[in-house]
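Input (Recombinase family protein):
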Amino acid sequence: MALDTGSESNADHSRVLAANRESIVTSKSMKRAALYARVSTETQQKERTIESQLFELKKQIVAAGHMLVKEYTDDGYSGKYLDRPALDELRTALKADTFDVVYFHAVDRIAREPIHQNIIVGELLKHKKRIIISGKDYEENPENRFTLDVLGAVAKFERAKILERTRRGALHRLRSGQLTSHGQKTYGYTYVRKTPTQPCALVINEDQAAVVRSIFEMFASGRYGLNAITRFLEKSGAPTYKGKGLWYAQNVRFMLQNPTYVGTRYFNRLASVNDVSGDGKRPKGNKRVLRDREDWIAVKVPAIVSQELFDKVQERLRIVRERYRQPAVPHLLGGLVRCVECGRMYSSSRFYVPREHPSGKVSVYHRAVYRCNRHLNDNTHDPARVKPCRNSVIATHILENTVVDIIRDVMFDAGKLGCCIEGTDRADDGSAARELARIAGETKRLDEERRQNIELYATEQRTATEYLNVNIALDEVLDRLKREKADAASTLREAAARDVLGASIRHFCATARVRFEECADFDAKRRFLRDHIDRIMFNHGKIALVGSVPLGSVATKETELHFRIEGEIDRATIRSKSLRRLWRDERSTSWVPGTHAEEPSDEPAA
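Output:
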């Protein structure tokens, strides 16, 4: 049946435009639409019935406020088969992200067979495309919910079957002594893929195997630790598996514990289990745990080191694990101090220093310092391969006392803290209001231009390319207006918030002072610092305390005002301190009552 383009089509256009004026929302988020139309018989092709499908689909697109970007038409192709040029082009375009929604005139235009329909619908949904069939959203149509549930269940069942068959096949090959790659690459070996006549295998890589033997021999000798071995490997130019120059102690430790190097590779060692949080209520996801030893599957591979050398290494590892380690001592600013020079965190370390008096008496003091974590690289890697951090080390009691002094001097004074708030410059409130009025007028004008563009396109006075180009140009102008509106609105919000800001700062200072004075032990002090300071920036004696003041009664990230309080360690005061006090870890003695660490004993060392 031929398309009637007379008074009836004009009336349809009028109805479409009337509905469009009420429903179109002008924004850059306008959905990009594609349509698919199909006729199969020669009679339908001659009568141009595909034109009626295109007309109806375009009406739906315009009425929904979507932007037509592509038409796919199969004129004279049967729906019995999926092999159709336009349909193939549409399926290929799914990966290119050229449209957001696809319109079909009816479900039988997709395909005649339900299984073929489900294939196409599944592909569209997989790529997160909306589907409109006969003017209705496919996913929101109650008749299709059951189909979607069935598709999801079938796909999940098929994946589970494939995984189970793959797992059983892999275990069968392993139990018969055949190797599987499991995607793991072991330093010292080259993985050889299977061929029609030979199974996959691990073959010794002699260049890497020589490095492995050196690692085992050095550690077994007792003269080298893990860090010393990594430095030696880097200085000697031994390449890592990926060809990079840096070695890491944890990787060397794993190699020393790997039984593959003595000729046995174990599979099926780990199992995936559901993990829950400490309270036993919230799931944390899956974690990998060791299976029972009898469930492991051993596969023989070529050995690189002897069993005797491997056992010697394991014995030394056991001794190292059982060796006494100084227990970790938390410090007041732990986890807060960050290095300005390299961006890494500062951590606290504690070590003992013997001191001999003129009388011959020996006293042992402990020194606690904050140092940049980058210094760990100096001990792990070859100095020629890593750039050291030059930021200074600072005694814990000196940094902690300085931070406490800054808090007392600035954070409890609303006037001083207000000067440290970032982004509170005054602006011209009147000009911001005038700017908002101008932007509102411009936006209204853009809305009218967009409606005119849609009307011209719907009445075929403007081509699809022209319609698309005009929409893109209008979107660019609208984007600029949105940015200008946000800036002007921000200026007005700042002006309106000044009174609230002053009250918020005064409230913050008062509550912080009260809580500070109530801190009677080390844990309370740490909680206070964690709650009021986000980070402490340290750079060669210069300090910056960074935190935020909640604006109003409810604190959110959007309503927080950030402050930055800068200070500096008094070097003259440090030099005036006695040597004995410098060696002691005095734990913020100026913050009373309460302290965390006991004074070290002056009794002679045994």
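The chain has three domains: 7-140, 189-263+301-322, 328-426+498-606.
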